Protein: GRAM domain-containing protein
Amino acid sequence: MSSTISSAVAVSNTGNPYLQASPAPPPPASSASHALQNIGRKFESAAKKAETFAGNLYTHLRTGPGLIDVAMTRLDQTARVIADGGCENVFRREFGNIPGEKLKKTYACYLSTTGGPVMGTLYISNKRVGFRSDYPVRTGVEWVYYKVVMMVDQIMAVNPSANLANPAQKYIQKKKEIQ
Structure:
């Protein structure tokens, strides 16, 4: 009785018509190759995120009153947040405190007004959405900080959209419940 080795498989040559030797499928990719593919995917994902961040930063700086003004305002805002003990404390100071309210997220953004874009911070909590300008806006004779606040339960829908002429400029349009 002789045996034949084909593709690292030992098959007994007994003349059985139902038994045939065939080559084995190629071995799976080595762990090093698999690791390199994972690293490549992670680099690709990071590059896309960096490209989006850079585009958003460029749009943010271009939309503002000037590069130096925008940079100084952002530095000033960061210093205020740190000095006040974080975004949660700034939110409570600016918009008051509602029992059980938790700040979820903050965004540096612009509020579109008839007088032009107003640079500020959007605060989103589990009960309210608020915006406060980073610098005072002139209203007639006096200068005031621009503030807007809405209860979350009064908002029917939020529609994200983009500027057709410049897709990097993104907008959020809210639909408020009529009372």
Strands lie at 3-6, 9-12, 103-113, 116-125, 128-133, 137-139, 142-144, 147-151, 155-162, 170-176. The chain has a mean pLDDT of 74.
